[in-house]
Amino acid sequence: MNELTRLTPPRGGGVKEKKRVGRGQASGLGKTAGRGGKGQKARTGNMNFIGFEGGQMPIQRRQPKRGFTNPFRVEYALVNVGALEGLGLAEVDLDKLVEVGLIKQRKGGLKILGDGELTKAVSVRAHRFSGSAKEKIEKAGGKAEVIVVAAKVTPQQRKAEEKKAAASAKKELR
Questions:
Q1: How far apart are CA 137 and CA 142, in angstroms?
Q2: Which of 43, 46, 132, 133 is placed for a possible disulfide with 112 were both Cys, Cβ 3.0 to 4.6 Å?
Q3: What does each C-alpha distance from 124 to 115, 137, 146, 149 come to in angstroms?
């Protein structure tokens, strides 16, 4: 196997020497260092980055924005049924999978997917199951228990409920 220290240039050249600019007129790249005389491109710090269009609004900023990112999207920690087979546990839940090291982050909950085979009866508690995963767990004699999480109440919903409660309390006083 090649090592970095044994690498050699290809036969017939292929290795270019670094261009040394601004090292006197005799070098051919002295004085203006190959930039020509005056003008925007001759100055240091000129705006020559990718996408620069001379001050015109660049094309990547002229394009309309598209798409949507849902801020309420729930991302689950994913585990396949085949991975549960090798654990040798009778009961599996999010805490045990983190403890064993099968999952690194808890994320928004646990989802069991149906890739792999399951022969042992395992009782699994998770937030979501794919159809095939649920089928395989129950076929092996296990239990697939869904953890139900209470829906989050938004500030707008809470405010509406408070208004409703205040209105009903006012009615009762009359």
A1: 5
A2: 133
A3: 15, 8, 8, 16
